[in-house]
Amino acid sequence: MQIALDTETSGLDIRHGCRPFFVSTCNSDDKTVYWQWDVDPHTRQPIIPPGEIDEIQEYLDSCERLVLFNAPFDMLALLSVGVKIDHLWKKTDDVLIKSHIYNSLESHKLKHLCIKYLDILDDDQEALGMAVKKARRIGRRLKWDIARKDHPHFPGIKKGDNDIDSLWPADMWLPRALWLAGEAPDDSWESVCRVYGLRDAERTLILNEFYDTQ
């Protein structure tokens, strides 16, 4: 059985403290399984219940093929929370590599490829982006640890990249955290990132099937 996996993280720089807070999977029977963790708004670290890393490990060990989009990033994210990955590489397909083989001249963003070849819209990303941008303003008012220039987790942020909207992808955990704290404007903030994460796992699996049939 194939399992496609995607991680949502508190930023791209795993080596400087960013961590996954949502792990989503979709298997070849169209079954989705996910792990979603609360994030401490003052440390940006996921609060992982005992045993859940073992659950992820067992699930990934059981599959025949593991399908990722940009495998090095997701593997590093998994490793950062204790998932053993060395033995997983031999059964891993990287859809990003397949996209380069198929057409090296086009955009290689997951959403773009799925719109172009699969007619899967990116409305979930738009909804999440709008929610996170609003959430960052609330988080700033509450003095939460939102992504910003000079933060130790983001040494790559350059001067001029520190406006309230451009850094939203590093704070996708915020809407649900604010919902849990009773600070969200509506209940959609509880699930907006979950919808996005699960659809990315589904996209990854379907796009892999597309490339394999070309």
Question: Could you explain how this protein is built, in words?
Answer:
- There is one protein chain.
- The protein is an alpha/beta fold and 214 residues long.
- It is built from seven helices and seven strands.
- The chain has helices spanning 52-62, 71-80, 95-102, 110-118, 123-141, 174-180, 192-212, and strands at residues 2-9, 20-27, 32-36, 38-39, 46-47, 65-68, 92-94.
- The strands form two sheets. The protein has a five-stranded mixed β-sheet. It has a two-stranded antiparallel sheet with strand order 4-5.
- α2 (71-80) links the parallel β6 and β7 (92-94).
- α3 crosses α7, α4 (110-118) packs across α7 (192-212) and α5 (123-141) runs antiparallel to α7.
- The longest helix has 21 residues, at 192-212.
- The protein is globular and about 50 Å long.
- The chain starts with a strand and ends with a helix.
- The mean pLDDT is 95.
Q: What is the structure about, briefly put?
A:
The chain is of the alpha/beta class and 214 residues long. The chain has helices at residues 52-62, 71-80, 95-102, 110-118, 123-141, 174-180, 192-212; strands at residues 2-9, 20-27, 32-36, 38-39, 46-47, 65-68, 92-94.
Note the quaternary state here: single chain
Order of helices and strands: EEEEEHEHEHHHHH
Please, what is the average pLDDT?
Answer: 95
Strand order of the biggest β-sheet: 3-2-1-6-7
Q: How many helical stretches?
A: 7
Major sheet details: 5 strands, mixed
Structural class: alpha/beta
End-to-end gap: 21 Å
**What is the radius of gyration?**
17 Å
State the helicity in percent bands: 25-40%
Shape: globular
Low-confidence stretches: none
Total beta strand runs: 7
- Strand proportion, as a percent range, falls in 5-15%
